[in-house]
Amino acid sequence: MRRPLVMGNWKMNGSLLANKALIGALEVTADDCKAIDVAVCPSFVYLSQVTELCSSSPIHVGAQNMCDQDKGAFTGEVSADMLRDLEIGFVLVGHSERRAIYSESDAMVAAKVNKALEKGIVPVLCVGETLEERQSGEMQAVIESQVRAVLDSASIAAFAQIVIAYEPVWAIGTGETATPEQAQEVHAFIRNLLAEHDAKIASRTTILYGGSVNAGNAAELFAMADVDGGLVGGASLKAADFSAICQAAQASV
Ligand code: 13P
Q1: pTM of the entire structure?
Q2: How far apart are CA 57 and CA 22, in angstroms?
Q3: Which domains does the chain have, with CATH numbers?
Q4: Best residue for ligand 1 mutational test, from 5, 6, 7, 11 (most atoms within 8 Å of Cβ)
Q5: What residues act catalytically?
Q6: pLDDT tens for the 253 residues of the chain, in order
């Protein structure tokens, strides 16, 4: 049985004041939702603060990105060792905003996944197709190449340590969510891809859905057999909404 995971991706939002209020409001929910894991991914700048705020709660803290190199002349980058210094347990890798705005290739994403694994940080590998790709019938090919880039460089065994997040680009920040059936179809497709290599690992891999998850649609998404939780953007910034999403995951168990 896979344990549901609900992660908030705060993206480039937050402030010392707002983070404190948000974590304060989420603590009770995280305490109540014992059957699931709850995590938040603040900006690098706030990782220390949020780690401290979460020190006496079950809320995990993740980063939104990471460098594929160990250290040195990489101005503006943050290394896996730096994240480990702060005891950060998760890192988002290959978010579609990183792929589209910062030109991260499948190869770069795979390198980051490998570096995170080497350093003992759980990579949350984000995959997803654009609307154009979906409409032109390329959805499966796109998802497959994004997953295969990691399979080829890291091997199937690595997926015992990897979380996958399916985030259709057309559903991110648009208010247009994939239907539960659309999400299930892609999640099952991803799990089958992994099962071609190792059925046991495939059955244990956590696959999150992301893209306009909110308090109103979370329960029906989480009810799908292969949807193991959510990666939540906008709604993770509102305590009441994120709490309701966590409670929907808890109720799905
Ligand atoms: P929204 O929930 O705002 O659509 O963002 C999804 C996302 O990109 C999470 O990583």
Answers
A1: 0.97
A2: 13
A3: 5-252 (3.20.20.70)
A4: 11
A5: 95, 167
A6: 799 999 999 999 999 999 999 999 999 999 999 999 999 999 999 999 999 999 999 999 999 999 999 999 999 999 999 999 999 999 999 999 999 999 999 999 999 999 999 999 999 999 999 999 999 999 999 999 999 999 999 999 999 999 999 999 999 999 889 999 999 999 999 999 999 999 999 999 999 999 999 999 999 999 999 999 999 999 999 999 999 999 999 999 9
**Residue list, ligand 1 pocket, CB within 6 Å:** 9, 95, 167, 172-173, 210-213, 231-235
| C-alpha distances in Å from residue 155, one per residue of 99, 158, 163 | 22, 6, 14
- Return the H-helix or E-strand segment holding 20: helix 16-32
If you measure from the C-alpha of residue 229 to the centroid of ligand 1, how many angstroms do you get, rounded to a whole number? Answer: 13
Residue appearing with tokens 């290599």: 197
Whose tokens are 């290959």? That residue is 94
- Residue among 172, 176, 207, 214 to mutate when testing ligand 1 (max atoms within 8 A of CB): 172
